[in-house]
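Appendix B, record 7
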Amino acid sequence: MTSVDGSRLKKTLLEMSQFGYNEQDHGVYRWGFTEADMAVRKWLLEQTKAEGFESFMDGAGNVFFGLGDFHQAPAILMGSHADTVPAGGIFDGALGVVAGWEVLRVLQQSDTPLSTPVWVVATAEEEGRFGGMMGSQAIAGALNPDWLMGAHDADDVYLKDAMAEQGLNVMDALDAAWPPERLKAFFELHIEQGPVLFNKDIQIGAVEGISGVFKWIVHLKGKADHAGTAPMNMRSDAFMGLADFAHEIERIIAENGTDKTRITVGKVDLKPGSPHTVPGEAIFTIVGRDMSNEVMKELADACRKALSAIARKHRLMFEYEEVSWLAPKDCSAALTDLIEEKAAARKLSCLRMPSGAGHDTQFMAEITDAGLIFIPSVNGVSHAPDEWSHWHDVEAGTNVLLDCVRAVATETIGDSLGHKRGSA
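Structure tokens (predicted):
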């Protein structure tokens, strides 16, 4: 049984981790469409081309490299995202890109006869700096001009301006869509970003479905005042409104959510931001997740009602902007079965499971059969400098990816896939 080169895989992943690496906190800073993010994309193009693979970057900033002509036959696409959250880890996203690269190397060096092209994508802006998962949305044809022109981050930097600084035209992202008939299947290898596999000592996760996600930017507006002279009972303190909402989250989940529900306040900005001034405005993000779109709607409604009541209590004005709404998505049952089968063939323990985090796979599933493979993350840590996966798990997951891609590219299973080709 052909296997990947674990040492080469490790070396490449560590090389990629140097782009945006911060020596002080040991985090990786490749926020979408920053200098470090674009530098790693240029590196991917140069290195893969040097190894003999065709490569290009589309108008959305997605980097592609691979074997065979996807214009002539439906392709197998694999990969993940190249961007990170600020102070992120080295595995989230990058693992799927480098693992796909390693699979291409093995296929190339073993002269595997392929019945279909095999390509890798390093998607752009998956971490949601501007809301959504722009790169995979572009591939799936799920973008529109209004969103592209209006999308901005929590610091009011607009997507169109961030892309322009990197020499990209935001409207070119509309031309990045892949017609469904060009795809036979999509695979993504990713760390779990949760503790289930690690705690159960299971090596592979075969993901059945992916949680939906909504993201808001909320403004609670009161009145700035002197911290020493303004009586406590006469204040319009925006921070107190935020604090009250934080205490409401547990109740909202208990009444409207499920055991899969997550609600997070992740970024907060108090204005004017002086130690001696009562905050006149609190700007913060709310991210809600669940496996049911209907539950997500109930959670959003409950958050809205809670914030309205809190605003009245503290004499505040409440406004919010829905930055994105990503519905839950099922993975391909056929590919989930295949992941289980290939894990078993290598005598690796495997668990069918949901994903609480969003992934590029959920948009790729709109246009083709899509499968998502998890490996354990130590203690379930992700989006942090101490995010870590053991190298033997990295190698095991990449071998399962290799076996799945080879099966679709060379065996009869590929004949039954791509059922969404030709759909709108």
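Remarks on this record: The chain is about 35% helix and 20% strand. The chain has a mean pLDDT of 95.
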